[in-house]
Model the fold of this input.
Amino acid sequence: MLRESYVMFSCGHRDYIRYTDRSDMLIKMHKAKKSGICSKCRRTEFYTNSEEIEVSYSDFKKYFEHHRGVEKGIYNRKTNKIKLRVIRPLLENYNARKEEAYIDAEYNGRDKNGNDSIVVFLKGNSYPIKDQLKSLGFRWVNKRWQRVVIVFPDYSGEQPILTYKENTELVQVIEELEKLGCISYMTSLKLP
Done:
């Protein structure tokens, strides 16, 4: 059972601590007096070191939902966006990740000649490199930049695998994308 006690914090204000037994109370009282700050000062510190942003609800679920240093605000159903107050380090990490483009691929089937093909595509922010993608043969299809590549899987084992030696076109495409700053993130590729 949790109990409460009103104690003095290192910031000079009094506030409540919660404890379970006498030894827990003494530990928490000592910590509060030595280096703890009251809830009002903690809130002021949070507002000083955070910024208010508005993000899509999917970004909230993906990047912020179960993190400390995030305060949820109002959700707008019309725009599907939510207001948040986020500490700066978490916000900087989010902005950096939103600027990255990730390379992924998925099996595309066999063409009319019986060759296996995969679709190499980009996820994330590929807008800044769209002109370079066009010059590499990528096309905008299904709301993503993608390119079909013929591959030659090794079917000798239990599961087919792609080797670097046999699939020079695929390796070349990935290397070109990495030169543009894309990050290889092949999670969708499953061969038949």
